[in-house]
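dumping this here so i dont lose it
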């Protein structure tokens, strides 16, 4: 118990910059042949936009693509960028060390403070629930159709949304969970994944697959911010986000060897 409490609450070093550019992170990027991809004017649009919230599904067993993007964007693109994991991650033994790359709590107030200060924030919009949709499927299944909180937050704060998608992240691990939804219900209640997973050699080691993070052009919202966005406004912006993510996937999937797959939102 004492050892667990120490792992949960001991102070973490403020070494984000050094860690992002360390030999270890560079080695992890090479392990996955990790790439960031824009097309056309999307890159310049993302650099010129105000601080945005990046929405990058799918979660997969572990959102490694999103985690690596924190190091890559800060080190190579010149924008201050942090991740936004679930609150429980900050006090989960071992997982909490990932927050050393640069993180804020996924709560709306924390994200709003970061973007107001000019910091871009990335999140996995399908969350833990997405784990139980993407594994064991022939296509890319993203649990995002009814998750409209990000659209509402963007309208309320006037923050652009940057659509993104990671190809390869769902192939890093395999997973098993019960067909009755008990593990999913427990995971969502605890905000921590409860299931069995495996990777390389059927160990917890991630498989060495190519991971590519695709980025689109920011979706801008009306200024000034809307104090109480209507359901119609939320639905419209959310539909634009889903369309942008699907367009990203379809635009690049053939070049990345995933042309046989399609994306489905549930």
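and the seq i came up w/
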């Amino acid at each position: 118990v004492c050892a667990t409490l120490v792992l949960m609450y001991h102070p973490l070093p403020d070494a984000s910059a050094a860690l992002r550019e360390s030999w270890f992170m560079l080695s992890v990027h090479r392990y996955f042949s990790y790439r960031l991809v824009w097309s056309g004017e999307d890159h310049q649009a993302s650099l010129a936009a105000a601080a945005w919230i990046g929405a990058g599904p799918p979660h997969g067993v572990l959102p490694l693509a999103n985690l690596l993007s924190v190091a890559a964007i800060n080190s190579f693109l010149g924008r201050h960028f942090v991740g936004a994991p679930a609150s429980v991650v900050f006090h989960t033994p071992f997982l909490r060390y990932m927050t050393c790359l640069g993180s804020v709590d996924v709560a709306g107030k924390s994200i709003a403070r970061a973007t107001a200060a000019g910091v871009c924030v990335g999140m996995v919009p399908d969350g833990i629930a997405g784990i139980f949709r993407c594994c064991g499927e022939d296509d890319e299944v993203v649990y995002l159709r009814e998750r409209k909180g990000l659209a509402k937050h963007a309208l309320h704060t006037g923050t652009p949304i940057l659509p993104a998608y990671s190809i390869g992240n769902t192939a890093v691990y395999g997973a098993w969970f019960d067909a009755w939804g008990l593990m999913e219900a427990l995971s969502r209640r605890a905000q921590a994944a409860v299931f069995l997973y495996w990777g390389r050699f059927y160990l917890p080691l991630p498989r060495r697959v190519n991971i590519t993070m695709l980025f689109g052009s920011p979706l801008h919202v009306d200024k000034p911010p809307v104090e109480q966005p209507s359901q119609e406004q939320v639905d419209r912006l959310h539909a634009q986000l889903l369309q942008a993510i699907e367009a990203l996937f379809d635009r690049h999937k053939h070049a990345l060897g995933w042309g046989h797959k399609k994306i489905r939102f549930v």
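The chain has a mean pLDDT of 92.
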